[in-house]
């Protein structure tokens, strides 16, 4: 499968993310950004795709400041972001991610897939409360997500 190297920057975030993605995913997110530039009709609000064998990312198209796709790495560090816990949410105005040691399927899986099915301009559900592996609650607004990185096994819908 052909890979594309994706560099994304987000508003108020100094460090870009660099990931290698499949050609179909590259075409989808590029189409989303083009659609946003053309008025935001018929595009998704979030794009969900694998970035390694074990990690996936969810990206808010409306939060993208710049997007660059190349067929070859061009001098930057092109490895997937590291993840200490099950999921990391990069929220507007926060330098550090909200990291949760999330271990089970359920609300997280539903949230990721639900956001990936939301069309741009539709109202995004207000908030979610998740519990980490120790049962500690974390409450945050879904419209604050710029992007998230998650262990892919946590967001696999049952067949």
List the helices and strands and how they pair.
Layout: E1 3-10, E2 17-22, H1 23-37, E3 46-50, E4 55-60, E5 64-70, E6 87-91, E7 98-100, H2 107-116, E8 127-131, E9 137-141, E10 145-151
Antiparallel strand pairs: 1-2, 1-5, 3-4, 4-10, 6-7, 6-10, 8-9
Q: Care to give the gist of this entry?
A:
This protein has two helices and ten strands.
Q: Notable features of this structure?
A:
single chain; 159 residues; alpha+beta; 5-stranded antiparallel β-sheet; 3-stranded antiparallel β-sheet; 10 strands
Uncertain stretches? none
Structurally, the number of domains stands at: 1
User: What kind of oligomer do you see?
Assistant: single chain
Number of H- or I-type helical stretches:
2
Strand order of the largest sheet: 3-4-10-6-7
Q: Outline, from the CA principal axes?
A: globular
Radius of gyration: 15 Å
Distance between the termini: 24 Å
Beta-strand content bin: 35-45%
Structural class assignment:
alpha+beta
Number of E strands: 10
Query: Please, what is the average pLDDT?
Result: 85
| Largest sheet properties | 5 strands, antiparallel
**Portion of residues in helices?**
10-25%
- Secondary-structure element string: EEHEEEEEHEEE
């Amino acid at each position: 499968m052909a890979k594309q190297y994706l560099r994304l920057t987000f508003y108020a975030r100094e460090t870009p993310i660099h990931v290698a993605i499949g050609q179909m995913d590259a075409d989808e997110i590029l189409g989303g950004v083009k659609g946003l530039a053309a008025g935001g009709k018929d595009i998704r609000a979030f794009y969900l795709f694998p970035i390694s064998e074990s990690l996936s990312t969810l990206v808010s198209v409306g939060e993208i400041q710049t997007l660059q796709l190349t067929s070859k790495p061009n001098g930057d560090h092109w490895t997937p972001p590291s993840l200490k816990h099950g999921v990391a949410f990069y929220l507007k105005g926060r330098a550090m991610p909200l990291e949760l040691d999330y271990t089970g399927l359920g609300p997280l899986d539903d949230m990721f897939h639900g956001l990936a099915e939301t069309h741009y301009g539709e109202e995004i559900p207000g908030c979610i409360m998740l519990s980490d592996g120790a049962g500690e609650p974390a409450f945050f607004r879904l419209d604050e997500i710029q992007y998230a990185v998650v262990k892919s096994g946590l967001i696999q819908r049952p067949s």
